[in-house]
Amino acid sequence: KKSTDIVLIYAGIIGCGFNSFGKTVDSSWISHGLAILSACLKKAGDTVDLIDLRQLSGWEEFEEKIKFLQPKIIGITMMSVDYNPAMKAAEIIREVFPNTRIVVGGPHPTLAIEEFNKDKRIDYIVVGEGEISLPILVEKIKSNKKSERIIKGIKPDLDKIPFADREIFGAFEKPIVSELPEPFVSIIAGRGCLYNCNFCKPAEDILFGQPVRRRSVDNVIRELIELRNKYHFRSLMIHDDCLTEDRKWVIEFCRQYKKEGFREPFICQSRADIICRNEDMVKLM
Length: 285
Known about the structure:
Layout: E1 6-10, H1 32-43, E2 48-52, H2 59-69, E3 73-77, H3 83-96, E4 101-105, H4 107-111, H5 113-117, E5 124-127, H6 133-142, E6 150-152, E7 184-187, E8 190-191, H7 203-208, E9 213-214, H8 217-231, E10 235-238, H9 247-259, E11 266-268, H10 272-277, H11 279-284
Parallel strand pairs: 1-2, 1-3, 3-4, 4-5, 5-6, 7-10, 10-11
Antiparallel strand pairs: 8-9
Helix pairs in contact: 2-3
């Protein structure tokens, strides 16, 4: 048994099930949200563990893990598709450790605040971004200080938060396409999107706000140098919703990427019209 300040839970098993981690592309993705939160919490001096449901055999093993870790606080992130397994995890935690504080955050709690505000299984809801607000809440809970139930996340300066703690997931991601060689890593350079497609909006604006915020090219290159030294990756994905919307950023990134000696291929998302109108940028990429 050990006593951990906070256990973060990744509940993304709807598409792949238990005991699925690393078997397919989808089941190998890390949660950048949780990985960055872990880095922020560790920087604040907290002990952090992760329970990734994809790496467990089922709910019995989940309960055993909770009993072993004895967390003071649980942090659960969820998209809407993760609601059922995420709340089942919360129920088990409530039965095993009734006094453990349960915090939820991520897209679904941000968009469905009232639904969670009425839910007795939950103690706190972090709305929006949690890199600054979650460590503050954890400190309050550890010090037995009162906190509001609904915490509006403070927007961080993306160049000032630590790089994602991908070690907590314990394995490499699989390349999104077979042409990309392994080891493969993914990073996120920005938050938000200029465009207004029905699928993402207005939810994304509620989560991240406007305007689009992007890390500086220097900051991203620094993380890539660290990842090269640590993992010797051979390809990567920049996960932004539409990286190519910022032509100036992409051109500067490509130049610095080459200047730092990177030759590893990378993949990113774009719109077809951007590709058609920016042949010189595409050639540089």
